[in-house]
UniProtKB/TrEMBL annotation:
CDD domains: REC_typeA_ARR. It comes from the Eukaryota. Belongs to the ARR family. Type-A subfamily. Keywords: Cytokinin signaling pathway, Phosphoprotein, Transcription, Transcription regulation, Two-component regulatory system. Pfam families: Response_reg (PF00072). Functions as a response regulator involved in His-to-Asp phosphorelay signal transduction system. Phosphorylation of the Asp residue in the receiver domain activates the ability of the protein to promote the transcription of target genes. Type-A response regulators seem to act as negative regulators of the cytokinin signaling. This is Response regulatory domain-containing protein. Residues 10-127 form the Response regulatory domain. The modification 4-aspartylphosphate is found at D60. GO terms for biological process: cytokinin-activated signaling pathway; phosphorelay signal transduction system. The keyword Phosphoprotein applies. It comes from Urochloa decumbens. The keyword Phosphoprotein applies.
Amino acid sequence: MTTVPPEPPHVLAVDDSIVDRAVISRLLRSSKYRVTTVDSGKRALEVLSLDRNVHMIITDYCMPEMSGYDLLKRVKESAELREIPVVIMSSENSPTRIQMCLEEGAEEFLIKPVRSSDVSRLCSRLITR
């Protein structure tokens, strides 16, 4: 009898910058996570409506149309999505912004550039297999 290995945890990475999406995707994949990348909060909500098997969302704060903060609020207001951990990333170290996101339900606020050690710490703490 063969056993099927469990699927790797699925992370949804949201950033309007193609470079930042590539960086976070590479870091997550090197830690053996399945990654879906999208370029906006609206696209993230579309993915979440189609795929309920997302274990963590990592999103940029500052994006056009829908900010990472707005995405966080939409996720936490949804009965179906609110249990998914949301991590906010930003290149701006603004204590007010950080506090606002944490109070709204973000699990973590990372200052860019995100490092491999940030990803390892997050994934071991937030993703339960």
